[in-house]
Specification:
The complex is a heterotrimer of chains A (303), B (385) and C (373). Chain A is mostly helical and 303 residues long. Chain A contains 13 helices and 2 strands, in the order H-H-H-H-E-H-E-H-H-H-H-H-H-H-H. The chains are: A mainly alpha (303), B alpha/beta (385), C mainly alpha (373).
Chain lengths: 303, 385, 373
């Protein structure tokens, strides 16, 4: 196995912890609610998954625990922003701090616990494909879940009524309401499902890729996920590309070092954000696809 | 309208004041019992504070400190121990030291490398408090209430390197480290030299993570090293769970550091270097309590060593993969070090072929602490300043 | 800013909407308003008590006595000179970064970039301070570092402002992203070019020379930066509440269309609000660096910028209230030591307290909006 391949394997595994939360953030933002608390939802997801894995001995059940933990925090964000009309950015940051505190307090006991992380599953046949096989198809369950989720999102957003409703809610809640649907309910669902994805992303870190719990272990992955959605201008396929590319950028340094190439990691680390900033300028300049209407209102109306 | 509002505001303020007053009264009543109780129980005991950068249960550096601090608490009846963990290496540590002094602490152990400037500054501004820093090697003048302590960590690390060199099949050893600080460079060099002593073909591949404990980066680093073909991993960070976990999954071997984590991977664990701080802590505290700290060996850079039989870092138990022949070889080497031998006895060459230690010369600790190159056989570069 | 954010004390908003009809209905509506406000106050007190109960429950679940914990929070922070000094020191960067949120907020802009602007301020100050700090007299070094910090912070806030006015990219998003870039720039610098070659291999810059460090106040742990920060709060208050510029910002923030018709230079005002905000945060970073940290280290801001965002929001973007909120958050952060030392609880429990203090008014956002309608 050479270094380049190893970068890609790590990039896909780590990128999964970006792509799933990013798809969650996409869902949330399409409905008109931005969730800066994605980082916090990932964090509680990581701890929730770890705690459940310790309790049950099964990392698969743990993932479900992480998803629920993330969803609970998402529900809080949804309730505050939708029913209590709270400022979305403030609420999101508060969710993050709440998660930092709660995981810090409840996680102390878990630092010392060992678990058996999600096993690597080789997909018969596909994993034998030269070069690409080991990179894409010798991974854990959640990496495959990520692939499926991407396909599912593309389908739902392009072809299904649910996707239509979601996008309509983000653009014109009034119209959705006139048509006999409940925009609030749709938004709550979208934000909660989004946070559930974030929780799964956290689980990928704690019981998948890394296999330990540590304080503040998401260390900015949630914010990268938010950035990826903006970079992708709300298109799932671009979310996928962005997330994996960023995942690869974040994991490249170690591999470069073992190949005797010393590079200052922080230049690489800054890359995702710089690329996103440039992409934002270009997208806004072209006047192309803009943010969902309700979302841009939320981003400018801060009280 | 405005008047009414002002009136309202006043009433609200009053209300708050009443609520606040009642609440604080209740609180003070409620807590009266607890605070007096703790004060009386401490009696004439001296309060000693330990500050840790990471979690006290990290299976590594900080847990070693925490365990030793609890030993001190259990074995020294005239000492009350307070601890704080997860304190970052910025001015937060000053605040924690201040809080400890407020709690009555007279002795503070600042146990992370990056605490050094804050600890020194705090000692200067608080002459009645004795501050000890774990790990730094100060070249300047020492205030009378400040000292640093460490051990010749590279001695047991070189023994771990022997174990690693003896089991590797690929002749590639992986070493994950945090920062290129002198201690770490010495450890990597000693690890490689130890491995070479039993297996001249062994090479050590190094990756740094720029963080004392970032399991994510450690996983990436460990995966990259394993992909390079490394079949033994060792490390110098504060926490080691992620590296051990990665090795375990790849069925590679592990040489531990800081804390005996053999339970995490019993079959892959070769050996390791683990801190046994309690004797040193107790000795330092006793010196301070006796009033003879100023001018003592602890009011300076104290470095324990095998030769002086006071190295706080000791060899961990062996795992099943180390053959009995190799075990006795390693223990024989340990005995030699205790008799005054050195792993850094020349000739030793840097990666680039430059002579680091001339033939026949045994460098002092201060010289070793100034090494700024990896020895021949280490693969990887030191990030240059 | 929309009408919903009009200050509670500012009665103009309710005047505008109060019916101009007969005096009896006017009185009725006034009574109604007062009643609503009463209700709001009770609700506020209620939610704060509720959030403290939640915190108490968490403490209780972790096996400590909530009353003792609350007592220690107050006792370990408010009744000790050393701790009070530490609170004040930490308030300096948080309050200035919070003003960096408050000033643009007046013009309706959302600055989530306090963290990055603090970092850039520290970088600017460090660049100048380390280069010439030891060769020039102290006061000159302080002045140059302050200028460098302010300029660096202003640039960091100015870029999103220009992106907003020229291309329409949301500043809420771009300022957030630039926090991460700023942090990576700092890490890059202290990891290689600025790394202290004479001491350890840890990524940290050389310490600032003694003469360039901000002088301490009356031999305490406080330094002159505290006075500067306080002065900046007053100046900011004056600029926002009394100056023509501050009024123009408010008009732009209230109704851009009206501002355009009144011939106000909207783009220039928007950009200037961000520049001033960024400069304030940059100064905060400089004061934190030159007064307290002395050298650039990873985590020098320790999420101060995000706490500042919450402080500004809690203080409703009003300089004095923002200062109070910043001090409160600073005290809460500090109380983590007391909690940990006395109860063995994980210090990050104070993050929960901080979050709950903000969640309480967030919970009432709807009521507050109804109130100002």
């Amino acid at each position: 196995m050479n270094g380049f391949e190893q970068t890609l394997i790590g990039g896909i595994a780590g990128g999964t912890a970006i792509v799933i939360p990013a798809l969650g953030e996409l869902t949330s933002e399409l409905s008109g609610i931005v969730n800066l608390g994605t980082e916090g939802c990932m964090l509680v997801g990581a701890l929730g998954a770890y705690a459940v894995t310790v309790a049950t001995g099964s990392a698969e059940i743990g993932v479900a625990g992480g998803a629920v933990a993330g969803a609970v925090f998402g529900l809080l964000h949804a309730y505050l922003t939708i029913y209590r009309k709270a400022d979305q950015l403030t609420s999101g940051l508060v969710i993050w701090f709440l998660a930092l505190g709660i995981t810090g307090v409840l996680g102390t006991g878990y630092v010392n616990d060992a678990i058996t992380p999600l096993p690597i599953i080789s997909i018969p046949g596909l994993s034998q494909v030269p070069w690409l096989g080991p990179i894409l198809f010798r991974q854990n369950l959640l990496v495959y879940a990520g692939y499926i989720l991407i396909a599912l999102m593309i389908f739902v957003l392009r072809k299904s009524r649910i996707g239509l409703l979601l996008k309509a809610t983000g653009e014109r809640p009034e119209v959705v309401s006139v048509a006999g649907n409940h925009p609030n309910l749709i938004q709550v669902t979208a934000v909660t499902v989004g946070a559930l994805f974030a929780g799964i992303g956290g689980a990928q870190l704690s019981v998948g890729y890394v296999g330990t719990w540590f304080d503040d272990m998401t260390s900015g992955y949630g914010f990268v996920a938010v950035a990826v959605v903006l970079f992708a201008s709300w298109k799932p396929l671009r979310v996928m590309v962005g997330a994996y590319v960023f995942g690869i950028a974040l994991s490249a340094e170690s591999v470069l070092q073992t190949n005797g190439i010393a590079i200052n990691q922080y230049l690489l680390d800054a890359l995702p954000y710089l690329v996103t900033l440039i992409a934002l300028v270009i997208v806004s300049r072209r006047g192309g696809r803009k943010a969902p209407e309700a979302l841009s209102r939320a981003l400018t109306d801060v009280t | 309208m405005l008047k009414k509002l002002t009136f309202l505001k006043k009433r609200v303020l009053k209300l708050f004041a009443t609520i606040g007053g009642t609440a604080s009264l209740l609180v003070s009543l409620a807590s009266c019992g607890t605070s007096t109780a703790s004060a009386s129980s401490s009696g004439s005991a001296t309060t000693v504070g330990f500050i840790m950068v990471g979690s006290r249960s990290d299976y590594g550096y900080n847990q070693a400190v925490y365990v030793a601090s609890q030993t001190v608490a259990a074995e020294m009846s005239n000492v009350k121990v307070i601890t704080a963990d997860n304190i970052p290496e910025n001015s937060s540590v000053t605040q924690t030291m201040q809080a400890m002094v407020n709690q009555g602490a007279k002795i503070i152990f600042a146990t992370s490398y990056g605490y050094f400037p804050y600890a020194l500054k705090f000692a200067k501004s608080h002459p009645t408090i004795t501050v000890l820093h774990q790990g730094e090697y100060l070249t300047g003048k020492f205030p009378g209430n400040f000292g640093t302590y460490w051990g010749e960590a590279f001695e047991p690390v070189s023994l771990g390197g022997m174990a690693a060199g003896s089991v590797t099949k690929t002749n590639k050893l992986g070493f994950v480290y945090a920062f290129p600080i002198p201690q770490t460079i010495d450890n990597i060099d000693a690890f490689e030299l130890g491995a070479q002593s039993v297996n001249p073909k062994a090479k050590t591949y190094v990756v740094n993570t720029s963080n004392w404990c970032d399991p994510l980066k450690q996983t990436e680093a460990a995966s990259a090293l394993l992909a390079q073909g490394a079949d033994v991993l060792s490390q110098h960070q504060d926490c080691q769970t992620a590296v051990i976990e990665a090795a375990k999954q790849a069925h590679a071997y592990v040489v531990g550091y800081h804390y005996d984590a053999s339970s995490l991977d019993p079959s892959g664990w070769l050996t390791g270097s683990v801190w046994n701080w309690a004797p040193l802590y107790k000795s330092i505290i006793s010196t301070i309590l006796s009033g003879h700290f100023k001018g003592s060996k602890y009011n300076a850079n104290f470095v324990g060593s095998f030769a002086a039989h006071d190295n706080p870092l000791v060899l961990a138990p062996f795992g099943p993969a180390v053959s009995s022949g190799m075990r006795s070889k390693i223990l024989a080497e340990e005995a030699k070090l205790k008799a005054g031998a050195s792993i850094f006895k020349g000739p030793i060459y840097c990666q680039n072929g430059q002579l680091l230690v001339p033939a026949g010369v045994t460098p002092t600790y201060a010289q070793i602490n100034n090494f700024s190159c990896f020895v021949k056989g280490v693969v990887g570069t030191i990030p240059q300043g | 800013m929309t009408k919903t954010s009009v200050d509670l004390e500012n009665s103009q908003g309710s005047h505008e909407v109060s019916p101009k009809a007969g005096s009896s209905s006017e009185i009725a509506s006034k009574i109604k308003t007062v009643f609503r406000r009463h209700r709001f106050v009770y609700l506020s007190v209620g939610t704060y008590i509720a959030s403290m109960v939640v915190f108490g429950l968490i403490v209780f679940v972790k096996g400590s006595n909530p009353f003792s914990v609350f007592f220690v929070i107050v006792q370990s922070t408010m009744f000790n000179g050393g701790s009070l000094e530490q609170i004040v020191l930490r308030t300096v960067p948080i309050s200035l970064a919070a003003l960096a949120v408050a000033v643009p907020a007046r013009a309706g802009l959302v600055n989530v970039g306090g963290e990055g602007q603090l970092i850039m301020g520290a970088i600017g100050a460090a660049g100048v301070g380390l280069a010439v700090g030891s060769t020039i007299p102290g006061p000159l070094a302080w002045l140059l570092m302050a200028m460098a910090g302010a300029v660096a912070g202003a640039i960091w806030a100015g870029i999103p402002a220009v992106m907003r006015t020229v291309t329409g990219a949301s500043e809420a998003v771009t300022t957030l992203l630039m926090n991460f870039v700023a942090n990576d720039i700092m890490l890059y610098l202290i990891y290689q070019p600025w790394r202290d070659r004479f001491s350890s291999g840890q990524p940290q810059s050389q310490p600032l020379s003694q003469s360039a460090q901000l002088p301490s106040l009356f031999g305490s742990q406080l330094n002159i930066g505290v006075v500067v920060a306080l002065a900046l709060v007053i100046v900011t208050w004056y600029l926002l509440k009394r100056s023509h510029w501050g009024f123009a910002l408010k008009v732009v923030g209230g109704n851009q269309e009206a501002a355009r018709r009144a011939g106000l230079p909207i783009s220039r005002l928007l950009i200037s609000s961000m520049l001033v905000g960024g400069a304030l945060a940059g100064l905060g970073g400089m004061l934190n660096f030159a007064g307290l940290e002395i050298q650039l280290v990873p985590g020098i801001t320790a999420t101060f910028g995000y706490i500042a965002f919450l402080a500004s929001w809690l203080g409703r973007h009003d300089p004095y209230k923002v200062l109070i909120a910043a001090s409160l958050f600073s005290a809460i952060a500090l109380s983590s030591n007391g909690i940990q030392l006395n109860f063995g609880l994980n210090g990050s429990i104070v993050d929960i307290l901080l979050a709950l203090i903000v969640i309480a008014p967030l919970f009432l956002s709807k009521n507050r909006k109804a109130l100002t309608k």
